[in-house]
């Protein structure tokens, strides 16, 4: 007898091969199947008579098989299965390709249900490759009504997934409904059993929407509840109070070669106030490319050191860590502060006693403890795993104290997204750009104008400037048809710019090689650097005035904006040249999306455009992928997120230990062990 705990191997028609494929989707038990939710529905509610069918119509027809046979098409080298179906009103021809087994599945005289788009074939109506199933009863799950579609892996079909879910759906009432009754009643939400049935096998779109409302709220509520528990736990911990050193901070700001923007002043004050408290700060600082987050971080680190404590800054790549080290060392060169660099190649054991330690994941090795750690800063924090960030906060020799924590992100984050993902963090935004920063002139370049673009690049290089050339791939690929850095590097070096020094940078190079290439580029020993998206994050070289992007349509607007942010750091006018692939240059949607980059220069506007055109998964892929539990909820549904947060706060305020809600407490599990207490 099947239960929700039954192994997937115990299910009807699941052999070893199918079980292996299902496990690739994370489906190992009946419960996994029950909570494997559809992402869309095919609408086959239009049950039509064959005599009434029209070309282009999506329809469900039911009839009797009058003829079914296999043929081999020698021209196309495929098997063709043909059938004639009669429903009493007329007959229609049905064609399937490369499914010869259908002649064993179906026989003449069988009652069959078919769903698909009506085509015209040599003047007669036909169905080509429709979904089909034998009619045993009115309970049809593949061809009638609203039919669920699920994410698949190779060699699995929608019919297999639906067949298996049909086997477990009646066990939905054995799964405890942990959402408190008062919340369901207050918000008009379905019970769990009904929601699960309606999400998999809805009779109407309204039923599907009601199920999505309940299950989507559930996902967001769990996340918000966890965030509130984290917040309470954090508030019960203790951090070192870092007093605001007003005199020294004013001296530091006065001696800067530029004026801080109002946004920089505001967020710096928010951070300095936070770290002066005995409860640990937990703040996200989000700012557009080039908005000046680094100087705000330096002010926080300076105050930390002036309080005789340590600060660390963790970056996702060696290149970025080295750059932070160089920049911060230069900014603080007149202060008696010891700054060290720790990467996989540079592991100075004495560095752990420095005032400021900048590094990569080398900072979180098992044998490392910082004696006076009071502030931990993580740059591009979504690139680190939860456990990596957790380790960072535990690397204080004084285990009774938790460091203040500051996350940095150059991805423009709408408030709804920040609330959904970082519900337990306080948010600081820098939207203003530093004064005098010239917008980067951005142009779309067609193949006809490529030669002229190369002439312009040559002119800039001869004037002493430098250029990035970004390609989507490392190695050439016939399937993808996109440019690779290796091929483009050879082409530019031999055919286009033989008189310039051209460098190559990609993720497969050894760390030492990457560092040497970047250092040579910084020192202008390399004039043109051909690279992959490695340059997306944080690489700043003031002398670089050209960003050339090949296969530009393969990147999202937010990512293209990140690339563009790598130039325009100096006083010279900078340029970004977008080269779409030849096959996409005449695609109106491609051009419309890329033209947005030529019109707008702030990341928040571009993020919203990208969100509308490409969706959350494309825009915030790295962020969204960190939360695989979100199958239904949208990270951009502000109203539901806010409602989930309000309900979580109400519940935690009344019952912080969840004593009245044992099912809910069990569902949350040991959140203290699995969650980063930011």
Automatic annotation (TrEMBL):
Organism: Candidatus Falkowbacteria bacterium CG10_big_fil_rev_8_21_14_0_10_37_18
Keywords: ATP-binding, DNA damage, DNA repair, DNA-binding, Helicase, Hydrolase, Nucleotide-binding
Gene Ontology biological process terms in this record: DNA repair
The name this protein goes by in its record: ATP-dependent DNA helicase RecG
Gene3D superfamilies given in the database record: Nucleic acid-binding proteins, P-loop containing nucleotide triphosphate hydrolases
GO molecular function annotations of the record: ATP binding; DNA binding; DNA helicase activity; hydrolase activity
Ranges where the Helicase C-terminal domain occurs: 456-612
Domain Helicase ATP-binding: 274-430
SMART domains from the UniProt entry: DEXDc, HELICc
């Amino acid at each position: 007898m099947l239960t929700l705990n039954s192994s997937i191997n115990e299910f009807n028609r699941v052999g070893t091969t199918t079980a292996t494929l299902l496990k690739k989707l994370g489906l190992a038990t009946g419960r996994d199947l029950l909570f494997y939710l559809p992402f869309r529905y095919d609408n086959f509610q239009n049950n039509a008579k064959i005599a009434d069918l029209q070309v282009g119509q999506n329809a469900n027809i039911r009839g009797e098989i009058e003829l079914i046979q296999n043929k081999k098409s020698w021209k196309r080298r495929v098997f063709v299965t043909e059938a004639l179906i009669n429903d009493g009103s007329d007959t229609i021809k049905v064609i399937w390709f490369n499914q010869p087994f259908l002649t064993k599945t179906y026989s003449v005289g069988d009652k069959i249900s078919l769903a698909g788009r009506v085509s015209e074939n040599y003047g007669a109506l036909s169905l080509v490759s429709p979904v089909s199933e034998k009619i045993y009863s009115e309970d049809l799950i593949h061809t009638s009504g609203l039919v669920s579609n699920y994410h698949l892996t190779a060699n699995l079909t929608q019919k297999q997934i639906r067949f298996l879910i049909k086997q477990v759906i009646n066990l939905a009432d054995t799964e405890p409904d942990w959402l408190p009754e008062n919340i369901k009643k207050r918000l008009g939400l379905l019970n769990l059993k009904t929601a699960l049935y309606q999400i998999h096998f809805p009779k109407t779109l309204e039923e599907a929407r009601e199920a999505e409302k309940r299950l989507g709220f559930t996902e967001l509520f769990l996340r918000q509840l966890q965030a509130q528990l984290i917040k309470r736990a954090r508030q019960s911990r203790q951090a070192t109070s870092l007093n605001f050193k007003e005199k020294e901070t004013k001296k530091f700001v006065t001696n800067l070669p530029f004026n801080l923007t109002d946004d920089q002043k505001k967020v710096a004050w928010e951070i300095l106030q936070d770290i002066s408290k005995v409860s640990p700060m937990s703040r996200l600082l989000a700012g557009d490319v080039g908005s000046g987050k680094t100087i705000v971080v330096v002010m926080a680190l300076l105050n930390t050191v002036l309080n005789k404590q340590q600060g660390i800054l963790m970056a996702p790549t060696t290149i970025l860590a080295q750059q932070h080290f160089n920049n911060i060392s230069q900014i603080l060169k007149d202060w008696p502060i010891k700054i060290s660099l720790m990467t996989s190649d540079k592991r100075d054991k004495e560095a752990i006693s420095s005032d400021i330690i900048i590094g990569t994941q080398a900072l979180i090795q098992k044998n490392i403890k910082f004696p006076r750690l009071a502030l931990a800063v993580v740059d591009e924090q979504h690139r680190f795993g939860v456990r990596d960030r957790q380790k960072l906060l535990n690397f204080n020799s004084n285990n009774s104290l938790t460091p203040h924590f500051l996350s940095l992100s150059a991805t423009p984050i709408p408030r709804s997204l920040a609330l959904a993902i970082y519900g337990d963090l306080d948010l600081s935004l820098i939207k203003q750009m530093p004064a005098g920063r010239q917008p980067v002139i951005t142009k779309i370049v067609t193949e006809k104008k490529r030669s002229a673009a190369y002439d312009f690049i040559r002119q800039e290089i001869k004037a002493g400037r430098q250029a990035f050339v970004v390609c989507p791939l490392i190695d050439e690929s016939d399937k993808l048809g996109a440019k690779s850095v290796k091929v483009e590097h050879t082409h530019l070096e031999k055919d286009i710019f033989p008189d310039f020094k051209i460098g190559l940078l990609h993720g497969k190079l050894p760390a030492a090689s990457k560092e040497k290439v970047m250092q040579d580029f910084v020192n202008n020993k390399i004039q043109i650097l051909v690279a992959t998206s490695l340059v997306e994050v944080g690489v700043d070289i003031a002398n670089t005035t050209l960003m050339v992007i090949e296969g530009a349509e393969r990147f999202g607007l937010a990512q293209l904006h990140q690339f563009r942010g790598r130039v325009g750091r100096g006083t010279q006018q900078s340029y970004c040249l977008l080269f779409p692939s030849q096959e996409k240059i005449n695609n109106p949607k491609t051009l419309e999306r890329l033209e947005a980059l030529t019109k707008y220069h702030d990341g928040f506007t571009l993020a919203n455009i990208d969100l509308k055109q490409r969706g959350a998964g494309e825009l915030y892929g790295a962020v969204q992928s960190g939360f695989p539990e979100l199958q239904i909820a949208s990270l951009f549904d502000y109203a539901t997120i806010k409602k989930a947060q309000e309900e979580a706060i109400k519940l935690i305020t009344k019952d912080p230990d969840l004593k009245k809600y044992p099912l809910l407490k069990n569902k949350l599990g040991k959140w203290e062990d699995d969650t980063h207490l930011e």
